[in-house]
Specification:
This protein is mainly alpha-helical. It has a domain at 67-221: Tetracycline Repressor, domain 2 (Orthogonal Bundle). The protein is built from twelve helices and no strands. It has helices at 12-39, 46-53, 57-63, 67-93, 97-114, 116-125, 131-144, 146-157, 166-182, 184-187, 193-208, 218-221. The longest helix is centred in the N-terminal third of the chain and has 28 residues, at 12-39. The radius of gyration is 21 Å and the shape is elongated. This is TetR family transcriptional regulator. Residues 22-82 form the HTH tetR-type domain.
Length: 224
């Protein structure tokens, strides 16, 4: 097989720089999420953030224009994870709408568990953003929840689900996913993460799957 022309190959030095930039951006986003959740957006200085991330203040400004940009980036980071992980999970679940609902919810919960500080920050501080930032977040929230809503619509139209309000069911599932972050301090006293996802999945599906179809979904409807 002939080798690719050099112009089409990625330069090793460029690839290394891109990897370092991605790692550094992740480092800053994680540090900002931790600090802003703990101290609030207005209580975090750029110097404190630099110390938390073990970098210089000047380096932060190489990646972000200021605290507002950084806050928006933290929130968008979670939504971008939804945009990647949820459709992938739904696709892997196959064509069954109920399986797709369960897979979507699990993917939402996985992202929330991995971004707990940022998820809490979204609720506490998104109002701090300007209108452009808030509108961007709202648009992304609608877009990233579409795979879940589509699965619910398909389940209802195929007769697998009772007549449900698609928007309300999707809303409830998203709140349950975010609830793991918002009430983590309390829930972790009695529940492991996997138990939380399993029980919440069963709670919702037991309420919306048509009774005659429930035996087929015992693996999703059982709470243990």
């Amino acid at each position: 097989m002939p080798s690719r022309p050099r112009s089409q190959a990625q330069d090793p030095d460029e690839a290394a720089r891109a990897a370092r930039a991605e790692w550094r951006s992740r480092q800053l986003l994680d540090a900002a999420a931790r600090l802003m959740e703990r101290d609030g957006f207005h209580g975090v200085s750029m110097q404190a953030l630099a110390e938390e991330a073990s970098v210089s203040v000047g380096l932060i400004y190489r990646y972000f224009g200021g605290k507002d940009d950084l806050l928006l980036a933290v929130i968008v980071d979670v939504l971008e994870a939804f945009a990647t992980r949820v459709p992938s999970a739904v696709e892997e679940a196959g064509n069954d709408p109920v399986e797709r609902i369960a897979a979507a919810f699990r993917a939402y919960c996985d992202v929330i568990d991995e971004h707990r500080h940022a998820a809490v920050l979204t609720y506490r501080e998104s109002r701090t953003l300007g209108s452009e930032g808030r509108n961007k977040i709202k648009s992304m929230e609608i877009d990233t929840s579409e795979p879940l809503r589509a699965a619910i619509r398909d389940g209802a139209s195929s007769g697998l689900l009772i007549a449900v309000d698609t928007e309300l069911v999707a809303h409830d599932l998203l709140l349950m996913a975010h609830g793991w972050a918002l009430k983590h301090w309390y829930l972790e006293q009695t529940l492991r993460f996997d138990d939380y996802v399993t029980k919440q999945t069963a709670l919702v599906l037991n309420a919306i799957v048509e009774p005659q179809h429930r035996p087929h979904y015992r693996h999703l409807l059982a709470t243990h």
